Amino acid sequence: MSKVAVTLNGRVYTIGCEEGQEAYLRELGGYLDGKVTVMANQVGQIGDLRLAVMASLIVVDELKDAERRIETLEAEIEHLRSESQGSNSEYGEERQHLAEHLLKAAQRLEALAASLDFPERDLDAGDAPASEQKIRFADARP
Fold first, then answer.
1. What are the backbone dihedrals phi and psi of residue 6, each rounded to the nearest 5 degrees, phi first?
2. b/e per residue, 63-98, with b = 16+ CB within 10 A?
3. DSSP string of 49-89, one letter each residue
4. What pTM value is reported for the model?
5. 138 in any annotated domain
6. Quick one: pLDDT band at residue 97, thresholds 50, 70, 90?
7. Residue 116 DSSP one-character state
8. Mapped to the 3 state alphabet, what secondary structure does 85-111 carry?
9. Could you tell me if residue 50 is inside a domain?
10. Does residue 24 form part of some domain?
11. What total of structural domains would you count in the chain?
């Protein structure tokens, strides 16, 4: 176990911590000392314990405020996810509807192409017969 010196209101306190946590503990101590200093400047030197308690209450208030903001943001994220899923299913239905219409149109075009009578071309000129020139719409479907 490591030990770290933390200063609050000009007094040094030695605090034990796990190995590797020393810098973090110093950072926390510095933050709390900043709050104690602000309190001392506002209300004067009313005793280390009272200043520490008042500063701690301010820090806890900040924590609670942060927790409320997190809850609000998480609720907003959940709401946005729900909206996103709803719109994705709506677009999925529209895509399916569009695909059905495209399939029907392709079938009509195929029937129309099959009903047309293309004249035969001169094979000596290098042209393919009309039956090979027809476009197969069914083959073009995804």
1. -120, 135
2. eeeeeeeeeeeeeeeeeeeeeeeeeeeeeeeeeeee
3. HHHHHHHHHHHHHHHHHHHHHHHHHHHHHHHHHHHHHHHHH
4. 0.54
5. no
6. confident
7. S
8. HHHHHHHHHHHHHHHHHHHHHHHHHHH
9. yes
10. yes
11. 1
The domain in which residue 35 lies consists of 2-101
Structural domain contains residue 25: yes
The region of weakest confidence among 13-22, 44-53, 89-98, 126-135 is 126-135
The pLDDT, as a whole number, for residue 140 is 47
Q: Which two tokens stand for residue 72?
A: 């609000």
Is residue 54 a contact partner of residue 39, using CB atoms and an 8 Å limit?
yes
- Tens-place pLDDT, residues 39-65: 999 999 999 999 999 999 999 999 999
108 token code pair: 């009509």
Cα–Cα distance for residue pair 80/74, rounded to 1 Å: 10
**Alpha-carbon distance 124 to 138, whole Å?**
30
Angle at 97 between CA 96 and CA 102, to 5 degrees: 95
Candidate from 52-56, 87-91, 99-103, 114-118 with smallest mean pLDDT: 87-91
**Crossing angle of helices 48-115 and 22-43, rounded to 10°:** 120
